[in-house]
Amino acid sequence: MKRSIKLLWIIAVASLLCACAGVGSTGAQRVDEEFSALRSTVVKEVSDPQRQVLALAAVDDLQGAIRNFSERMNVFSVEIERLNRDPDTPRSSFETAFRDFNTERNALRRAVVKAHLELLAQVGPASWTKVAEQEQKALVAAASIRVKK
User: Fold this and answer.
1) What is the pTM of this model?
2) Which of 122-129's residues contact partners 24+ apart within 8 Å by CB, and which partners?
3) pLDDT profile of the chain (149 residues), mean per 10
4) Rounded to 5 degrees, what are φ and ψ at 73?
């Protein structure tokens, strides 16, 4: 159980780190490769066909949520740059931009956690260690993606 909580925190941190991180094609390719490896691990480790389908769907949801977050972070970055260019931009415009971004970020973070928990539920304890190791690699790769400039 402690390992699941630790991994849950890693997922939350990884989803937040995506915001801090320059997107190059190599970074995006690495993320795709790690998620592909995660899918392969799920196929190897989950023998029940129904659970396998649900676990693979959870991986897709996880990758989609992280991709959505990266895209939203890019939009937010451009918006903040635009606001910063005008010295007369009122503080309220910045506050609104940050409030809206935080609302979306929280929703996307919940989506990441939900997908992780679904993956855990479908994989089960016997296979979780191998799947968790690959999930962690995928999340670390996602955390290394940088904001497009």
Assistant:
1) 0.77
2) 122/46, 122/51, 122/52, 122/54, 122/55, 122/58, 123/42, 123/45, 123/46, 123/51, 123/55, 124/46, 124/51, 127/45, 127/46, 128/4
3) 57 52 64 95 95 97 91 90 93 94 92 95 92 93 72
4) -65, -40
